[in-house]
Amino acid sequence: MDEQARIMQALGGVSLAGHSVQGGMALPPPHGHEGADGDGRKQDIGDILHQIMTITDQSLDEAQAKKHGLNCHRMKPALFSVLCEIKEKTGLSIRGAQEEDPPDPQLMRLDNMLLAEGVAGPEKGGGSAAAAAAAAASGGASDNSIEHSDYRAKLTQIRQIYHTELEKYEQACNEFTTHVMNLLREQSRTRPISPKEIERMVGIIHRKFSSIQMQLKQSTCEAVMILRSRFLDARRKRRNFSKQATEILNEYFYSHLSNPYPSEEAKEELAKKCSITVSQVSNWFGNKRIRYKKNIGKFQEEANLYAAKTAVTAAHAVAAAVQNNQTNSPTTPNSGFQMKDEEFQLDSAESKNTLLTNMFTGSSGSFNLPNSGDMFMSMQNLNGDSYQGAQVGANVQSQVDTLRHVISQTAGYNDSLGGNSLYSPHGLNANGGWQDAGTPSSVISPTEGPGSVHSDTSN
DNA sequence: CGCCATGATTACCC
DNA sequence: GGGTAATCATGGCG
Questions:
Q1: Which segments constitute the PBC domain (predicted)?
Q2: What CATH number did the domain enclosing A253 receive?
Q3: Between the CA of A37 and the C1' of B8, what is the distance in angstroms?
Q4: Residue of A346, A340, A365, A323 whose CA lies nearest to A269
Q5: Do A173 and A203 belong together in one domain?
Q6: What is the pLDDT along chain A (459 residues), one digit of tens a residue?
Q7: A160 and A276 assigned to the same domain
Q8: Nearest-CA neighbor of A130 among A15, A229, A60?
Q9: Which nt sits closest to A281, CA to C1'?
Q10: Is the CB of A240 under 7 A from strand C?
Q11: Same domain for A170 and A216
């Protein structure tokens, strides 16, 4: 500013139609002052200040008239060029093009979060992806639907407030920007303002407003987080699954003990049957695998129980198959062998095979019956593929006989189930992991001696 | 109220 | 991304 004052001093004496530009005042006062002496200058400044202070008292028309008078003044172009020169010399205009302000990471984070939470972004009927995701992870569809709808309603509320406020801010920002731009454009007729400067001013205004916007976004994020945490807290209040659901899951687990990793489809199927979500099924299997592996002994009884259940179910299916085989086409062993049990539907040949081997051999971590070797060989053919070389051309009648044998044995076995260690948990390998499906193992239960593997069922 | 069962979450691994 | 292991936190029972 020193320099500017100096320049102004140097320019002192340049008079425009008797109006002094001394003292740094660019605008010539409307009525004249003589004298450039000290006292007169003071008086001059005081006068100008007074004018400025009382400018608001003037009527708009009066001001407009004055402005017009100034613009039409014959010396105005000269004054304008002088002002331009001063400005150039003082370097006031060279502060324009500076930062191309890079996107604020904080703002980006907030934006991303709001988008993810479904607050920002395209309208989606209030539901939002986040709510849907939360719903998916929140378990029983009917159980917490109330909480869920509550969550959605609150989220919608937040969303609405956010959008209203955002709109308000934008509107205010636009209004203010146009106002300032108009003002500056207007002023650019009397003082040197380049379009670049106007642009810069607009940028400044936008930055100011975006900082306000950021606050809005931040508080919206906070609100969503609070809502979400409350919702998640509520979700954390776990409910035990229904007995039926647990049963279904256990049945699947123990009948696939050799490879208790349900496929995505199987998970969906189980989820549907149990009225739980797929992720809950995954959770359940994750927990089950871990806990089973950790303490196989503890699960022995349960395993027996479910294996027996499965066996009975399967036996029914086998009986049906036998019936089918006898009545339909005895020459084609595989035709008609379909498990149609609605209660425990096995939808692939692989699973049937696993089930059967689980039932009748100890090799996949399920039952262990006397003469199982025989039956194992016989059973393999039923599904056409075998673990140990199928007897492709096996005698159909012998298979039917074997099946009858199996059924009677299974039934009897089931009756005599008395908590004996009938079941040996194979499928678990020495490394503590499960073996691949369909590869019967000879690994012996870590919790039991070899004897238990072939323990007689007294049946 | 303490204990165990159990569903969910988290960190880490492959 | 799905799995394991550890852990948390609640439900439920004696």
A1: 40-233
A2: 1.10.10.60
A3: 88
A4: A346
A5: yes
A6: 454 554 445 444 444 444 444 444 444 444 444 445 567 777 888 888 888 788 778 788 887 887 788 778 888 788 778 877 877 777 655 554 455 566 777 777 788 778 767 788 766 544 444 444 444 444 444 444 555 666 677 778 888 888 898 888 889 888 988 988 888 888 887 778 878 888 888 888 888 888 888 888 888 877 777 776 666 665 566 789 999 999 999 999 999 999 999 999 999 999 999 999 999 999 999 999 999 998 888 898 888 888 887 777 777 776 776 666 555 444 433 333 233 333 333 333 334 444 433 443 333 443 333 333 333 333 333 333 333 333 333 333 333 333 343 333 333 333 333 334 445 555 666 666 775 544 443 333 333 333 333 333 333
A7: no
A8: A229
A9: B7
A10: yes
A11: yes
**Interatomic separation, CA of residue A240 and C1' of nucleotide C13, rounded (Å):** 14
Asked if strand B contacts A431 at the CB level, meaning under 7 A, the answer is no
- The domain total for chain A is 3
**Are residues A204 and A249 both part of a single domain?**
no
- Strand C reaches within 7 A of the A282 CB: yes
Minimum-distance nucleotide, CA of A262 to C1' = C2
Q: Does strand B come within 7 Å of the CB of A139?
A: yes
CA gap A446, A432 in Å, rounded: 10
Domain boundary among A282, A304, A321: A321
Q: Which amino acid is at A115?
A: L
On whether residue A442 sits in a domain, the answer given is no
pTM above 0.90, yes or no: no
Which single residue is written with the structure tokens 């106007």? A198
Distance in Å from C7's C1' to A315's CA comes to: 42
What is the distance in angstroms measured between the alpha-carbon CA of A88 and the sugar C1' of C14? 92
Name residue A7's amino acid: I
Bases on strand C under 7 Å from any protein CB:
2-7, 9-12
Same domain, A182 and A111: yes
Q: For strand C, which residues in window 220-239 of chain A come within 7 Å by CB?
A: 236-239
Strand C contacted by A327 CB (< 7 A): no
How far in angstroms lies nucleotide C11's C1' from the CA of residue A290? 21
Would the Cβ of A5 be found within 7 angstroms of any atom in strand C?
no
Q: Quick one: tokens of A65?
A: 């008239």
Which of residues A292, A321, A350 is at a domain's end? A321
Closest by CA to A311, choosing from A387, A262, A265, A379, is A379
Same domain, A79 and A152: no
Provide the residue range defining the domain that includes A231: 105-120+146-236
In a domain, A262, yes or no: yes
The reply to whether A432 Cβ lies less than 7 angstroms from strand C is: yes
- Whole-number Å distance, CA A290 to C1' C5? 8
Give how far Cα A384 sits from Cα of A35, A306, A379, Å.
120, 26, 9
Same domain? For A196 and A161 the reply is yes
A277 and A168 part of one domain: no
Judge whether A89 lies within some domain.
yes
Annotate A373-391 with DSSP letters as a single string. HHHHHHHHHHTS--SS---
Is A398 among the domain residues? no
Whether nucleic acid strand C comes within 7 Å of the CB of A286, the answer is: yes
Let me know the angle formed at the C-alpha of A168 by A176 and A130, rounded to the nearest 5 degrees.
140
Of A374, A411, A377, the closest CA to residue A391 belongs to A377
